[in-house]
Amino acid sequence: MTIRPLNDRVLLRRIEPEEVVKGGIIIPDTAKEKPQEAEVIAVGPGRLDDSGKRVPIEVKKGDRVLIGKYSGTDIKIGDEEYVIVREDEILGVIEK
C-alpha cells in the first residue's frame, strides 16, 4: 500500500534517537518523549496560492527533518507508525 499526501502535506516516519544510558538505567517506552527527527517518506504536490498556481513543497523524499513533538497526525499502517504534517509544521531540514 502506498500513501500520497494531498496538497502541502508530508508523510514522515519518526526516527528514534540512539539510546545512550548511563548507569544501566532503562527508560520504559511509555516515559520516553516523541522523537523530533523524522524522515520524509512522501510529499504532496504543494498548496495552491491565491492566484491558483501550485507552490511546490521544499522538502523531498529521503530528507531528514525536525518537527515539533506534538505536530501532525499520527497514523499506523500495518506495523509502521507515521505522522502526517503540513509543510509549515516542519521546523527545518537536517543537512550533513
UniProtKB/TrEMBL annotation:
The keyword Cytoplasm applies. The keyword Cytoplasm applies. Pfam families: Cpn10. GO terms for cellular component: cytoplasm. One of its GO terms (molecular function) is ATP binding. It is found in: Cytoplasm. PROSITE patterns: CHAPERONINS_CPN10. Keywords: Chaperone, Cytoplasm. Its main location: cytoplasm. Belongs to the GroES chaperonin family. Together with the chaperonin GroEL, plays an essential role in assisting protein folding. The GroEL-GroES system forms a nano-cage that allows encapsulation of the non-native substrate proteins and provides a physical environment optimized to promote and accelerate protein folding. GroES binds to the apical surface of the GroEL ring, thereby capping the opening of the GroEL channel. Heptamer of 7 subunits arranged in a ring. Interacts with the chaperonin GroEL. This is Co-chaperonin GroES. It comes from Thermoanaerobaculum aquaticum. The lineage of its organism: Bacteria, Pseudomonadati, Acidobacteriota, Thermoanaerobaculia, Thermoanaerobaculales. The gene is groES.
